[in-house]
Specification:
Strand content: 25-35%
Mean pLDDT: 97
Cofactor: FAD
Protein name: Sarcosine oxidase
Keywords: FAD, Flavoprotein, Oxidoreductase
Helix content: 25-40%
Low-confidence stretches: none
InterPro entries: FAD-dep_OxRdtase, FAD/NAD-bd_sf, MTOX
Pfam families: DAO (PF01266)
Number of domains: 2
Structural class: alpha+beta
Order of helices and strands: EHEEHEEHEHEEHEEEEHEEEEEHEEEHH
């Protein structure tokens, strides 16, 4: 006897979607969350995440297409507005590596895009103060994902399909036997046919040593600013953006609350000893660089940080997720190590994890994400 066909450990960005997708395949799925879904110290925090159909690595294009369809399905199934379809801007030096690699990927995949000159940007998106050699690539299918809303909606949809959720139940260990997996929390234990580990920065204690050696919790911080004219930074007029201009970089999202704009230094994760001990306060250096960058990039924002926070996530040594069974014939499936870039594809990752863990479908062309790249 088992307690279910599948356990999903960690109900954050990926786990909530895996639970939802698994609930469409079986009513014998159980989710475990160490605190409560979308709690304030998880990697889900921060209001929004960027959705983009353009990616520097063309291998992600099928997954992005799949994820976009599934975000729409989640909205239709739950009645929640989750993906704000405001478009996306990717800004950089005209002949620099970032823009050229992005264009090459877009052409290789046939992804819709538009190259905007500096003058075109100044006319269409005057909120951005560009350097002389800056251009932009516009992604008409980009947008902003509402993080808290998406996670809670997916879990509610899973429960409506018959899934069981245990909140405030941190998992201490998992042990695979010949025909099952034993999951423990304190003096409680459950037995399942298969398990998906997707507990983000907290996943390391549940992974085998070869994967532990390739994964490290990191601290990711976010910052928000007040717009002088909020209407200029509304989703209708201000797409999500990523900008790499010379020595400065930043990404962000429109004022989804009508007042504050997310604008955060890009590529600034730092190692953390423990995910629960991530420092929430910004350092003086982080504050200074953030304010200097906003002052240059966005004259329409007051250059004072009005809100900031920091969150943990699990990064891998190659900054790509760990997605797949630890051993080909095993019962433990990993969906973790998304390295600060998993939310946009959370629905797609969740579907793949649920279908593969339950033995419903195997996906090809994902060798670059499989655990075996580290364990072979």
């Amino acid at each position: 006897m088992t307690d279910g066909k599948l356990a999903v450990i960690g109900l954050g960005a990926i786990g909530s979607m895996a639970l939802w997708q698994a609930s469409r395949l079986t009513d014998s799925v159980v989710g475990f969350e160490a605190q409560t879904p979308a709690h304030g110290r998880s990697a889900v925090g921060g209001d929004t995440r960027l959705f983009r159909r353009l990616h520097l690595d063309p291998r992600f294009d099928p997954l992005l297409q799949q994820s976009e369809r599934l975000w729409a399905e989640l909205e239709a199934e739950t009645g929640q507005d989750i993906l704000i379809r405001c478009g996306g801007l990717y800004i950089g030096t005209e002949n620099g590596g970032y823009i050229q690699q992005l264009l090459e990927s877009a052409r290789a995949t046939g992804t819709s895009h538009e190259l905007l000159s500096r003058d075109q940007m100044a006319e269409r998106y005057p909120q951005h103060n560009l350097r002389e050699d800056d251009v932009a690539v516009f992604d008409p299918n980009g947008g902003a994902l509402r993080t808290d809303r998406s996670v809670t909606a997916a879990i509610a949809a899973a429960q409506a399909n018959g899934a069981t959720v245990h909140n405030n139940t941190p998992i201490d260990g998992i042990r695979e036997t010949a025909d099952s997996v034993i999951v423990t929390s304190g003096d409680q234990s459950w037995t399942f046919e298969n398990v998906i580990v997707c507990s983000g920065g907290w996943s390391r204690k549940l992974l085998p040593e070869p994967l532990v050696a390739q994964a490290q919790p990191y601290r990711v911080f976010l910052t928000w600013f007040v717009a002088k004219e909020p209407s200029l930074f509304s989703p209708e007029r201000f797409p999500v953006f990523v900008r790499l201009s010379g020595d400065r970089s930043m990404y962000g999202a429109p004022a989804v609350d009508g007042v504050t704009v997310k604008a955060t230094l890009d590529m600034r994760p730092t190692p953390a000893e423990r995910p629960a001990a991530v420092a929430r306060e910004l350092t003086s250096e982080e504050i200074a660089e953030t304010m200097e960058t906003v002052s240059e990039f966005f004259p329409g924002l007051y250059p004072n940080i009005v809100r900031s926070d920091a969150f943990p996530d699990l990064f891998t040594s190659d900054r790509k997720p760990i997605l797949g069974k630890i051993s080909p014939d095993g019962r433990v499936y990993c969906a973790t190590g998304f390295s600060g870039g998993g939310f946009k594809m959370a629905t797609g990752y969740g579907q793949i994890a649920a279908q593969e863990a339950l033995g419903k479908e195997d996906y090809d062309n994902l060798d670059f994400l499989r655990p075996q790249r580290f364990t072979a």
